[in-house]
Amino acid sequence: MKMKSGFSALMLIALLSLPAYAKHASFSERVIFHQGEDGVNTYRIPALIETVKGTLIAVVDARRDSSRDLPAHISLVMRRSFNGGKDWEPMRTIVAVEEGGVGDASLLLDRSNGRVWYFHSYGPPGIGFHTAKPGARTGATTFQFHAMYSDDDGATWSSPVDLTPQVKEPQWQAMFAASGTDIQASSGRLLVPLVVRDERGIVHSFNAYSDDHGKTWRHGEAIGDGTDESHNVELKNGVILQNMRNGKTRAIARSSDGGVSFGPVSHDAALIDPGCNASITRYRRGKTDVLIFTNAASTRRENLSVKVSYDEGRTWPVARTLHAGPSAYSTVIPLRDGSIGVLYEEGTTSPYERIAFARFNLAWIAQRGDKLR
């Protein structure tokens, strides 16, 4: 069996280990939020989860009056799919506030009980990440970290709970949870990446964590100076790999204590980045165990791409573009049937015109016109 140049031997091994139905390239895409719909100026900041029953939940910012971040007038809206992303129920609002705004949603599935956690920021009037004040753990001048949960696949949600007093240090100027999809470690620990502006005004990546299924929360240690929005993944040996926004390539660090403290920060030259939120996940199916990464793989917000690593993130030999044009935030998850789902921002002249859901398999990532023969 010969391979055209560019087709990785590792990819061949991975493909041969997949079930027969997954060896043939499969791809579908659907736009589920579009700029201007329902009178909303811009939809931004995708979050995605698949429940234990297979329901897909997509949550985004509905930026009512402009495309600006908090403290702009923003509410959080949701759509669900019960057939793998082919069809989506009508959009509905999850959280809206009379004063201030909410945004930057992230979703987390607790596998032990099926509960879906939903985290977001709340900015009181005039308060955003850059205008919040230190000194109070929560209140009218504090950028706040709230949580809700659903035990019925997103049909209903609990009332928001302010987790800021548990997680924020009084001297910090501001803090928020990075948007997208969060993870539960094999220990059962819930991990939520944070962005903190400390008492000196320096921005760091952190993690919030819970070891009692969300009853109480604590924060870990800062992961380098100048790091920003991040996501993490648990490797085969239990190490937590943090992948962080930090300049023109992604910053990475590893933790051997479940995401609390980290070793040195380095940069992955293979992961070019425009300074934008990205996503990483671990895909396990049969004998296949790989990492999958998505971001705008450019020095500008464009070229939304998916990459695969077979060696715990040391190299990324296989990549494919999802959207070559303007694009920005994304989140990627493995799906129960063995395919992969990505929710991402894309457009024709701007990255923020649409939010699309794509579903594909590993064979599609590898294809790129190459054929096994």
Notes on the structure:
By secondary structure, the protein is mostly beta strands. It has a single domain (9-367), classed as Neuraminidase (6 Propeller), CATH 2.120.10. The protein contains 3 helices and 25 strands. It has helices at 9-16, 164-167, 362-367; strands spanning 27-34, 42-50, 56-63, 74-81, 92-95, 101-109, 116-123, 144-150, 161-162, 174-177, 180-181, 183-184, 190-197, 203-210, 218-219, 230-234, 240-244, 249-255, 266-272, 279-285, 288-296, 302-309, 318-334, 340-346, 354-360. A 7-stranded antiparallel sheet has the order 1-25-24-23-22-21-20. The radius of gyration is 20 Å and the shape is globular. The termini are close together. Mean pLDDT is 93; it is low at 1-7 and 369-373.
Helix content: under 10%
* Unreliable runs: 1-7, 369-373
> H/E order of the elements?
HEEEEEEEEEHEEEEEEEEEEEEEEEEH
CATH fold description:
Neuraminidase
Tell me the fraction of residues in β-strands, as a range.
Answer: over 45%
Largest sheet: 7 strands, antiparallel
Tally of separate domains: 1
Provide the gyration radius in Å.
Answer: 20 Å
* Silhouette: globular
Distance between the termini: 6 Å
Report the average pLDDT across residues.
93
Question: Helices and strands: which structural class?
Answer: mainly beta
Tell me the number of strands: 25
